[in-house]
Amino acid sequence: MDERMPEGALRHAVFDVAEAVRGLPDTSTTMVADHRFTDDPAASARVFRVYRPTPPHSHDTCDEYLYALSGRCLMRFGEEAPVEVGAGRLVVFKRGVVHSVPAILEEPMVFLSVDTPRREPRDIRFVEAGTGTPDTFMRQAE
Q1: Is the pLDDT of residue 68 over 60?
Q2: Span 24-53, mean pLDDT?
């Protein structure tokens, strides 16, 4: 094993992204459902579907790189005006940046995400109390 690689770290892999997207549920009781491809300390890679608008929130542990695979939505960053995001768009924001999806314009809204370093599944801080919890935010796809 390469001494630079942490014990048990993924050295290489090829993933079927389309297959993982097909495996996401058609509906969810949570705002988001995801499927993780990698979950190493340095980065996590996953696909996720947004089922309903998400209230303003942030993540403390990672920067996010989101590539829209399908659908269209409005995304908002802080107090800025919402921007339309659709298939083929890359969205980048750093840890701590407040963001939301105030509207889903076309379904299914699916993103490929690379989070650096790894995004802990429960790493979510809602701006307004009572708008969500880690359990109401994300369902982990099987």
Answers
A1: yes
A2: 94
